[in-house]
Amino acid sequence: MTETTATAAVLRELGSPLAIEEIRLDSPASHEVRVRVRASGICRSDLTVSGTDHGFPLPLLLGHEIAGVVEEIGSEVSELRPGDHVVACPVNQCGLCGECRSGRPFRCERRTNGRAPGEAPRVTVGGERATQFIGIGGFADRMVIHENQLVRIPDEVPFEIACLLGCGVATGLGSALNTGRVGTGDTVLVVGCGGVGLNVVQGARLAGAQRVIALDRNPDALRLALEMGATDVVSADDEDPAAAVRTITGGAGVSHAFEVIGLPQTLDLALEALRKGGVAYLVGVQKPDAVLGIPFRHFFEQKAVRGVAMGSSNPHIDLPKYADLYLQGRLQLDPLVANRISLEEVNGGFDRLREGGLARSVILFD
Question: pTM higher than 0.90, yes or no?
Fold first, then answer.
């Protein structure tokens, strides 16, 4: 086992463009794996963290939707071998606490997959310890990651598709299938039809929902939502979009509303569109200091609000299942890849997100 170098996009200052730099990777520790990254999706969370202080020390290596090939494993890694195709998932799980052992790794009580402060850093840049965003830091052509955050997938899934499984697909599908437990006959509203929202639409379709209503301001997003399983669409520019949703459902409102944007006003819209006893799910990431004001009348109507973390996903069970659905043709993932770019074009990928781009820009590595 030897130290190696890699090329990565590094965030040196909040709000500044990422810089392409050489980084140094330490040898994998006992439960770590070095991955040759083949594809890395640019998620809106990467953009948000690049400009807002969420507590991650700088320099920071962003990127958490990756697919690649195992190059080297630590001495105690048992489930992976060099040559395996893997995807990374931000669910940081220890595998030992009560929540992990109960099948809820997204609620892990320890989250101890990083190295301790006194240990040699996994990654350095310019001789300085670098932080891996959510333990991954995947805007790099190689990375060292804890084995618990890697899932083996079939070789037949293209890397540019596989990389989406760990975050956008897991969060979207999982929100409908795991957190919301949408079932046959349910009515569903999805507020925000970007990469995650489109997968909530697909999850609701797979679950057998009677109505899947997509709401967005972008006509292209609504068109894509129809292609991926929405039964109805509503423009956010309508005079009263919540009333339009209630009209579609015969006046009652929906049983499940998924807010996938991360704004207080879109949560208000989701609550207004709910039927009595319905549940609104907060999938979109709010700003750290956001305060949500909810009128009491919603609770009088027995409505509920529930937070969602990574689609309540158990990655080692869910991700292989989603990969299989893709290979069967039952899960549409190809339309989610809008642009294929090089690492040097990563800042352009961020620009497309700022401009309201629908689907992912995916960084491809040789």
Answer: yes
